[in-house]
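Question: Send over one sample?
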Amino acid sequence: MGRTLVIVKPDAVERGLVGEILGRLERKGLALAAAELRTLDADTLARHYSEHVGKGFYEDLVAFMSRGPALVAVLEGPRETWRTVRDLMGTTDPAAAAPGTIRGDLGIDLTENLIHGSDSEASAEREIGIFFPGPPD
């Protein structure tokens, strides 16, 4: 069984797309193991985006990700669930994302691109620990 972290970002929550995005993930056969709607704080975002701290875009990223509620979720599925989620998400830039992907069908802006998904098993484990600390289920 694989697990990965997904964040349905504030722009998607604002646009009422949480159900559509979760539905696409569930229709692919992935299951919600944990989910919480929360406004992310600067400390949590600093841990999550640690590789970007100090970069020119970092403050704008934190401002966007903390401006309103986001749905933080752990999804379960087959091995390499993270890869399945990344394929469903589409490329970072919605203008270049393939039709049929979340970003390709629903995305509008490069910097506000609806969804985050872990990019490897190691990242998934690290990110789940940030957002859902405690002993594993």
Summary: The chain has one domain: 2-131. The CA atoms of residues 2 and 51 lie 24 Å apart.
